[in-house]
# Entry
Amino acid sequence: MDKDLLNDLDDAIKHCEEKEREQALNGCFACAEEHKQLAEWLKELKSFKEGQKSRKDFIETVLSVAVTFELDELDVALYLVERGIKLDDFKYNDDRYNYFKEFFEVHGLLKGAENG
# Structure
């Protein structure tokens, strides 16, 4: 496990929690809520990195962040593939599996996302 990454995640979580409190004190409750949610996602990512969360949980966290922040689908797919997520990791949900299979095929990512 890359200790620098975990330290960076700890720092990012701490920063988000500090910003959440700061924004709440300033009356910007929407910003405070966004920082709170981001801290929760970072905690989930840290759990995955430490081996405490399943690949399914990791995928769902990444997809949740992507939807909330309206991230580019190709960037999200590349991020998942770069982190070792394979097409079969989506088999817990037929709709997700079929969507990502087609998406990976269209964008030439299927080779990097195939199991084996």
